[in-house]
């Protein structure tokens, strides 16, 4: 299984960040897409007790299931 690293940056000025990256000659590896996700657990939250979860994510071009 591939390792996934996910970073979230709340409250940023996306246009300003894009300008800085463009100045630095950064290249887009993956275009921005809307991803929808839903996390699942048992009613008694037994997965959360062990930092576990089940997630279904719609990545626009594919749907993934993670646990």
UniProtKB/TrEMBL annotation:
It comes from Candidatus Kaiserbacteria bacterium RIFCSPLOWO2_01_FULL_52_12b. Residues 2-67 form the CYTH domain. PROSITE patterns: CYTH. This is CYTH domain-containing protein. Coiled coil: none annotated.
């Amino acid at each position: 299984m591939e390792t996934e690293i996910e970073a979230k940056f709340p409250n940023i000025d996306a246009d300003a960040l894009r300008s800085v990256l463009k100045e630095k000659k950064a290249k887009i590896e993956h275009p921005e897409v809307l991803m929808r996700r839903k996390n699942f657990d048992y009613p008694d939250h037994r997965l959360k007790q062990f930092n576990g979860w089940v997630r279904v994510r719609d990545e626009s071009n594919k749907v993934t299931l993670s646990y």
